[in-house]
Amino acid sequence: MIKKFKLISYLAICLIAINSNANKPILLIGATAHIGNGEIIENSLISFKDDKFDIVTEANKIRIDPTSYDTIIKLHGKHIYPGFISPNNTLGITEIGAVRATNDYNEVGDFNPNVRSLTAYNTDSRILKTIRSNGVLITQVTPRGGIISGASSVMYLDGMNWEDASAIENDGIHLNWPSVFKYSGWWAEPGNTKQNKSYEADVEKIKQYFKKAYAYFKFSEKIDLQMKSLENIFNGSSNLYIHANYAKEIRESIRFFSKIGVKNIILVGGKDAINAINIIKEYEVPIILIRTHSLPSSEDSPIDEFYNLPSKLYEEDITFCFSYSGDMEAMGSRNLPFTAGTAVAYGLDKESAITALTLNAAKILGISEKEGSIEEGKNATFFISNGDALDMKTNQVEAAYIKGEEIDLYNHQKELYEKYRK
Amino acid sequence: MSQEMTPVNSVSKNFYPTYAFTNAYIIIDYKNQIENGILIVKQDKIIDVGENIEIPKGAIIVNLDGGYIYPSFIDLYSSYGIKKSIKKKPSMYPQFDSNKEGAYHWNEAVHPEINACDQFSINNEQIKNYLSSGFGVVLTHQQDGIVRGTASLVSLSQEQESNVILNPKTALAFSFKKGSSSQNYPSSLMGSIALIKQFFLDAYWYKNQKDVINLSYISYNENINLPHIFETNNVLDYSRINEIANEFELDFIIKGNGEEYEYVNDIKTFGFPIILPINFPKKYNVSNPELNRSLTLSKLKQWETAPFNPRILYENDIKFCITMEGIEKSEEFFNNLKTAINKGLPKKIAIKALTHIPSTIINQEETIGSIAKNKKANFLICSGDLFDDGKIYENWTNGKRHIINKKPINDFRGYYTFHSEINEIRNFKLSGSIDKIKVHEITSDTSLVAYKTDLQNTTLLFSNNDMSFRGMSEYVDGVFIGFYENDFGDMIDFKLQLDSTLIENKNESKKLIDTIIPTILSPNKAYGIQLKKEKLPILFTNATIWTNEESGILDEADVAIKDGKIIAVGKKIDGKILFKNNAFSTIDLKGKHLTCGIVDEHSHIAISKGVNESSQAVTAEVSIANVINPKDHNIYRQLAGGVTTAQLLHGSANPIGGQSAIIKFRWGSNAEDMKIKNAKGFIKLALGENVKQSNWGDNNTIRFPQTRMGVEQVFYDAFLRAKEYKKEWDTYNNLRPHVKRNTSPPREDMELNALVEILNSERFVTCHSYIQSEINMLMHVADSMGFTINTFTHILEGYKVAKKMKIHGAGASTFSDWWAYKFEVNDAIPYNAAILNENGIVTAINSDDAEMGRRLNHEAAKAIKYGNVSEEEAWKMITLNPAILLHLDNQIGSITKGKDADIVIWSGNPLSVYAKVEQTYVDGVLMYCIKKSKQMEDRDLIERMRLIKKMGEDISNKNFKEIELEYEKIYHCETIEDYD
Hints:
Helix content of chain A: 25-40%
CATH superfamily of the domain at 73-403 in chain B: Metal-dependent hydrolases
CATH superfamily of the largest domain in chain A: Metal-dependent hydrolases
Number of domains of chain A: 2
Structural class of chain A: alpha/beta
Largest interface: A-B, 56 and 72 residues
Structural class of chain B: alpha/beta
Largest sheet of chain A: 8 strands, mixed
CATH topology of the domain at 73-403 in chain B: TIM Barrel
CATH class of the largest domain in chain A: Alpha Beta
CATH topology of the largest domain in chain A: TIM Barrel
Oligomer: heterodimer
Number of strands of chain B: 43
Shape of chain B: globular
Strand content of chain B: 25-35%
Distance between the termini of chain A: 30 Å
Number of helices of chain B: 26
Helix content of chain B: 10-25%
Shape of chain A: globular
Radius of gyration of chain A: 22 Å
Largest sheet of chain B: 8 strands, mixed
Low-confidence stretches of chain B: none
Distance between the termini of chain B: 50 Å
Mean pLDDT of chain A: 92
CATH architecture of the domain at 73-403 in chain B: Alpha-Beta Barrel
Number of strands of chain A: 20
């Protein structure tokens, strides 16, 4: 997949040696490396062989033999980041919002734990190619709708088919916890939002369903697709993603699922997380945050309510990552790095913002063994940006690699740009 | 006496006794009272009233023993006796025409021909409530639709309708709500406003023409001299109605809404008399602190301030009368009335607002509104001061007596000694209220034992709890005489003799009522401002200044502002010389960046009730300028993002949408003051999927156009019609004076007026557009009609037709990177702005979104990322370029001497994601300050806590509402809603 001609075009700066021995590692020198774990190496030396990083260190701390490298790339003044991770998104399973035929994220029915996004993932999505050219290289493809929307999978933004692109198959089940408030109108005629009178009943429905699933997990006889698909949340091999925002929802859902024996609970949304902070800490629940670029929850809320939520959570020592879920989430997720930039403007330390975009996201999704940071032994999934990748002014991704293979940063939009700029 | 018009099924009853009410405290009117007066009434009239007047022979004399007489109240906003019109279930398909048959107005919501008197029938249920609340006369109408028809003045008595209607056509009623009409138009508030205006235009035109018959206009023109009553839904409607009043030289009486205090100065200036509801907001259930977080400051403040509203109007010399509208029970009506008085509304003014004012507003002061000779016998007999603890005993309407509360015969309360025939001596206490006595036995150890008590007139029944004593007694000459029954069935006679009357040690420590008017913020919600802010003289020094002028970006330079204008830009400005020794402040901005305010060419915030008049393909007559919502908190949020000016655009639901409003974010001002006074007129046009309703579901396949082919034809048709119209008027206007005088003018059409303005290049077009084919098409239409498309907005495929746009002379206002949300944006690219800019097209980046609107600097920075636009050029895309597109670049859009002092201070390079706005000035007024904003948050939090506590403490009323979450109504181009 490496396209040498592309590589050369940006390597013009300095190309020390070219030897077409595919097994020799590639060396990157001089870049500011944002490791992903909060560390930063100003003058880095990074090498990767096949799909893995084998050396990650400071350039002046090590002597290397140039002849053992195919390619040595000098990147002084540039930045290297682990591939950014965009969790909780419909990228790859939607193409054009208003065209129903292109939307594959919302299955009929309230409880669909057995449906999985993986098999609907389109590796040639036009949108997908515009996202990775901003540094987002991994996404969690997440179904929507109902009470249990289905199972998500963690996918690379490249591949020949969905098997090829998959980082983890069915990483977890997504549950939409009932809302304390309910809209009384509809999109065209919004009414006031009233207290949800059926909240208790709705919650009870969920509880019964999961009690049944637990019973099935313990003593299953026949195969029931729905029940079967929930086994992994009880044996700890996949996550339960609880989509909840209001403090009461957060408290009640976390308590219930912990008690029933769900091993890995992840909170998704968490608008009100600060007001449920004690329970989030007590149960050590990580959070996939709502989009940072969101309007405050009410006219009384501080105008920067969600701009500074990440820094508040950081101060509370909560593990969180960013997401771009919401309106136009798939095509908009190329802006995910900039939402982290905003969080930095509002108090979050820059490397911590990068950690949230990379290693923390990887931890939450369960891929931190192989992805999420530039560390020896991990997959060489990273990108090179000419400038600060969290700032739209300087985010210029020059090259990106997924598992050691360079990916094509060309896309439909660049093609049109080139055609019409003449 | 009059003859009977109706046949009587018996012998005729023609004797009407005269009544003389003596020993009365008579409130003649709000100014005068007679302490010991006599009121003489016969049939439906007051014969006489005075102190020592002669009582006619044979009169029935009623001694009121010092009781009070009031003139009965008048309610001008009622639907008493009128059947409610029921909204038909809306069809799944659009409805363009009226379902009403006959030669009437084309719109179902306009029906001046409806007369309340035709529909009126006495309603015995509704009447009770009015009578027990003290009303004698109401003005009733069918509260449905926009031009509603006439209202009738009716007396609240249960006779034949013909006797009850005092004046069949007393007033005309209007509103902005389309009510039961199922027709699509209007689908927005601005549509309602346009519909009303066009109605007044047409009614005037109708008088001078002979070609058409329309019964609606005939009706209206017949009744044109009646008072016009206009209903408001919220306080912002006042200025909307005022504009109509000024345009058509009409006097309106306003049905208020209880929020008048918020814009009381404006309302005072408008000078409308107001029919004021007193249905003060109910308190919320504040027992759950978690839910309380959803209770907004605006709702809390409204709850606290609303009871002061009548007083505030009074203190501002605003003429108002009171209506019971919105209140269901008479107890609540009196409670609220007393609350208003406790909050400082003088009693006299309350009486005036219930009697005199309503009678004069509708020109009926000769017959009602006070107790005077020859007026209608409409009055109340009360136990005492009605606004204290007095009670209404009787409500006389049209000379007919209605008993409201039974007058107690006597005050029996006191200590009694009980003697029975078997020589028992016991002690009893009769206490409680005068008409609801409670009997207690005082035992030997002086404790009290309660008895079940029932007092019926003079018969007192009382029994103890175990029913071992069952007593019955009658009051005869000062003593209760009776017997009781014991368990053995013995009937034992007893007497109860009064020892001493009860000395009430009434709890005089009445709860302290706060009478200080709460602080009213502008707007009255979170982040509202307390004092009107001033245009400060300031010298900003040592800043990196993005001038947008030839001088480019200046390092360590200064800017001076005064009276809302920039007065100097340069290095090392000497403030003392510049400000001529007048006071000014210096703000050192070392390390900071200073720019002009951001201009959003395409915004939909700060709009009330509908951004789209989506009902018809052409709605050029509607205007966002009529529906600005200055209270929208998104204004403040965007100030915090450095935005100071925005074009509020109509949506994109139809090929020719409505007119824009161009405003500055003068937070705390009213709608009118937000408008930029000398701004040029703009109008929204739209192309593509929205106007052809592609994404509206399968039922919306009826409205023309459904294809891009049809869209083109809509434009040609509209502009050709406009040309014809223009010709017609030109011909008329060029007639020689004597001919003109004898020629009736052509009909004035607001829609065509706006289109003619486009043709004359007096109104500029902002056109929502995506695909190159349609952009190209519209430029052809415009070229053939002789005007220019000022701005293509969104213009996502502009990069494909940039050269053509350049030749045509259009500007562009685009999204930075939106795409893929619908089919027509599949070829949208983030390099669009760069390509357009390279082609020499004035290019802006806009928001169309309330959240993105506060980060437009981010969006501009994307032009650097996608297409390598220089920082200066990128910055112009959200400042100078949109200012040029709005024809406001002589006033805003750069930092140069003479321009408006719309200034933003940034913590760093404004195109960086890390930059924060520290201060935003509009016209030299500090509208946002990052530090003060935090202080305001603290202020608001403390205020909320105070109010929640106060609400929780309030035990005066046991009713409360459950907390709801405020829904953030965020409009986009495509938001369609059904407006009611």
